[in-house]
Amino acid sequence: MEIDELIKELDKKLIVIKKEILKDTMYVYCDTYKKETQCKYCGTISNSVHSIYQRTISDLPIQKYKVKLLINVKKYFCINPECSHKTFAEPLNFVEKNALRTKRLDEYINKIGLKNSSLEAKKQINDSHVNISNNTILRILKKKKGFN
Ligand SMILES: [Zn+2]
Fold first, then answer.
1. Given 3, 28, 57, 130, which is the most exposed site by the fewest CB atoms within 10 A?
2. Cβ distance 75 to 88 under 8 Å?
3. How far is the CA of 107 from the centre of ligand 1 (A)?
4. CA 73 – ligand 1 centroid, Å
């Protein structure tokens, strides 16, 4: 499967603009093509872009490469003068707020973690070209089990 298709599985609005392989990591640069977005605080549609910033998010490995997505995320002005927020970032549905990994990568880690001790899980996950610490694995597992 082409990398573009794998990225589109995350979100159809993502466009791959550049791919780069450095050592064991594939960096995939993405834009979002959406021209307007709904304010998450008041629901008003805005097309007034305030700024663009880059988020770096780890995704599932492809073949023998770790994958890092570098996504240009748009920040919009809310055009509703009544709104409690002047600006808002466009939402990315495939990643939790402020998370550094896609939901599908967390799912994958969770699946391995549930079947194994954390040490064995770490080994298996690192063997599959995802760099992750024991603490992160435990954090993801705890969250899934509802301890957090
Ligand atoms: Zn608003």
1. 3
2. yes
3. 32
4. 17
pTM of the entire predicted model: 0.82
Helix (H) or strand (E) holding 71: strand 65-77
Note down pLDDT in tens along the chain; length 148 residues: 588 888 999 999 899 999 999 999 999 999 998 888 999 999 999 999 999 999 999 999 888 899 999 999 999 999 999 999 999 999 899 999 889 999 999 998 888 877 877 778 778 877 777 777 777 777 777 776 654 4
R_g (Cα) of the chain, nearest Å: 17
Ligand 1 centroid to residue 32 C-alpha, Å: 20
- Can you give the residue ranges of every domain in the chain? 1-93, 101-148
Ligand 1 centre distance from Cα of residue 42 (Å): 4
